[in-house]
């Protein structure tokens, strides 16, 4: 059982890493990121196949098929289908979104069996969820804050270049292209981390039987922040908006992130 738990955790971590590389390809059309994401996804499929086989063989004769096995097979099937699409049909965006769903199913399924467990086990599970949530959201805040600094520097430099004000501070700044690239990289890392932290927070509330807190101000502002950064991703990847517009959108999204942080003082979530 302990080995199976470690294997399941390894699948989740490698799956999340694969999604980060696919997300990078989604924004910047990076062939290198796509290859790494595809390689990690194949590794996920191998690990998941091994886990599904062990789980099915060890439980088939003892208990009937549970919802855990059902959703486990469903997630494995999504990964398999996405690999087939990636290999034969070359529809990149659908591969990314199918695996976002597959990861969500796999992550939620990990905690589906805790509802029938004893209260100490439930408390231990929710505590571990809280640790993971805090780690992810702190990393997301840090990365997105750095991205906001680059967005502010981009707007400052753009205004100075537009007005032809060549000062010492302007000469010491990186180029517009470099700041735009780092701003995009902050989103590539920060948005998936923020999305996973929000999902884990929602799962922990449901597991603890506190689903009513999903309407708490902290949760609502977190979802609004995530939605604004997703809008940034869409405008960058699909619409190809110019740099100054994207920098302003990033600043607006970061302002929502600040509101989310300030909501801690009036929230009942933490």
From TrEMBL:
Family annotation (InterPro entries): Cyt_c_assembly, YpjD/HemX
Transmembrane spans: 6-24, 36-58, 70-86, 93-111, 131-157, 186-207, 213-234, 246-266
Pfam families given in the database record: Cytochrom_C_asm
Protein name: HemX protein
Keyword line: Membrane, Transmembrane, Transmembrane helix
Annotated organism of origin: Paenibacillus harenae
Record domain Cytochrome c assembly protein: where: 71-264
PANTHER family with a match to the protein in the record: INNER MEMBRANE PROTEIN YPJD (PTHR38034)
Lineage: Bacteria, Bacillati, Bacillota, Bacilli, Bacillales
